[in-house]
From TrEMBL:
Pfam families in the record: NAD_binding_11, NAD_binding_2
PANTHER family named in the record: 3-HYDROXYISOBUTYRATE DEHYDROGENASE, MITOCHONDRIAL, 3-HYDROXYISOBUTYRATE DEHYDROGENASE-RELATED
Family matches, as Gene3D superfamilies: N-(1-d-carboxylethyl)-l-norvaline Dehydrogenase, domain 2, NAD(P)-binding Rossmann-like Domain
Record protein name field: 6-phosphogluconate dehydrogenase
Coiled coil segments of this chain: none
Bilayer-spanning residue ranges: none
Family: Belongs to the HIBADH-related family.
Sample GO molecular function, one term: oxidoreductase activity, acting on the CH-OH group of donors, NAD or NADP as acceptor
SUPFAM superfamilies: 6-phosphogluconate dehydrogenase C-terminal domain-like, NAD(P)-binding Rossmann-fold domains
Source organism: Mycobacterium paraffinicum
UniProt-annotated catalytic positions: K171
């Protein structure tokens, strides 16, 4: 069993992940640029790495929870990146919702790369704190089996999806479907308003009707579609762009899902008209 869990990307989701790993009594090594993050996690028992390269050299499993493909490439590639400096036999778990081509670029950037697993997540910081984050994970089955007990510190279920890239494909489909559902929900809210139904009444009623959805639950919880779009928009826009990039690389059309995302009333896409 690996004895040092390295962590890169201690942000909105990453910090509670680290705290759950520490709570499960794992030895956790973190690289963080912000001093307040370093001080907070050190006070909870995490060790600190001096650089990305230092983190990679000292980690048996390296978990990367970065916002974008660009950040993954920036920290992973090059002489000072985590790929070139990884320990022999190390495993990289990437929680970034990005593209297979980036993971392949990392893998192909050196002669002896770590085992790479794509492990995008579905859930919130509250889910992490409760230990119920959903993690989809693709890659060699032995590596998946080795890291699953560690991920269980903050994730349940951990769903093995097959070969490298399969988890990303599933997550991108999920995110596009979620965004399309949110657009339909916003359109339904506008229709309800025209028919004299208050948005808050519509959202609360949907919780007990056949059109109930995760998007409706979230919008109701945060206080309406405008607030939902404000909170979820940055993440959904990034994921929609990644899904389009992946589809272009694969030579496939996104079809009706893409139409709903583009033409809906929420500003989840550069082509969207605005918020209700």
């Amino acid at each position: 069993m690996p004895n040092t869990v390295g962590f890169l990307g201690a942000g909105q989701l990453g910090q509670p992940m680290v705290e759950r790993l520490l709570g499960a009594r794992h030895d956790v090594l973190v690289y963080a640029r912000r001093e307040e993050v370093r001080l907070r996690l050190e006070s909870k028992g995490a060790a600190m790495a001096d650089s990305v390269a230092d983190l990679a050299r000292r980690s048996d499993i390296l978990i990367a929870c970065l916002f974008s493909d660009a950040q993954l490439r920036e920290t992973g590639l090059g002489a000072d990146g985590f790929i070139a400096n990884a320990k022999p036999g190390a495993v990289l778990v990437s929680h970034t919702t990005g593209t297979l081509s980036t993971l392949e670029a990392l893998r192909d950037s050196c002669l002896s790369p770590p085992v790479i697993l794509d492990a995008p997540v579905s859930g919130t910081a509250d889910d992490i704190n409760a230990g119920r984050l959903t993690v989809l994970i693709g890659g060699p089955s032995d590596a998946v089996a080795a890291v699953t007990p560690i991920l269980n510190a903050y994730a349940d279920p951990v769903v093995a999806t097959g070969a490298l890239g399969s988890a990303l494909a599933l997550k991108l489909i999920n995110n596009l479907l979620f965004a399309a559902n949110a657009q339909l929900l916003a359109a339904a809210t506008q229709l309800g308003d025209r028919l004299g139904v208050a948005p808050e009444v519509l959202l609360s009623t949907l919780q007990v009707c056949s059109a109930r959805s995760h998007a409706a639950e979230q919008a109701h919880r945060v206080g309406g579609m405008a607030r939902f779009a404000e909170l979820a928009g940055p993440f959904l826009r990034k994921d929609i762009a990644a899904c389009r990039e992946a589809a272009t690389e694969a030579g496939v059309e996104l079809g009706l899902l893409d139409t709903a995302v583009r033409e809906g009333p929420l500003a989840l896409d550069h082509a969207s008209a605005g918020t209700p």
